[in-house]
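[audit] Reproducing an earlier prediction to check determinism. Same input, same settings, fresh worker. If the tokens differ from the archived copy the diff job will pick it up downstream; this log only records the rerun itself.
[audit] input (57 residues):
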Amino acid sequence: MPKLRQKIAGDFRTEEFASLFLGIRSIIGTLKKNDKPIFESLLTLMTTGSLPDLLPP
């Protein structure tokens, strides 16, 4: 993640976008940790609003 931080430094104009970014990074990190498909899981999240069977309770 250090390279990612370097690339996005200064790009968050509002606290809202920074918060959205951190939420998405958190979801991706959890999906990786649980060996779940990231792209398909994010598509499911965007279309249904939840990840019912992909993340542990």
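[audit] rerun output stored. Observation attached for the diff report: The mean pLDDT is 76.
[audit] end
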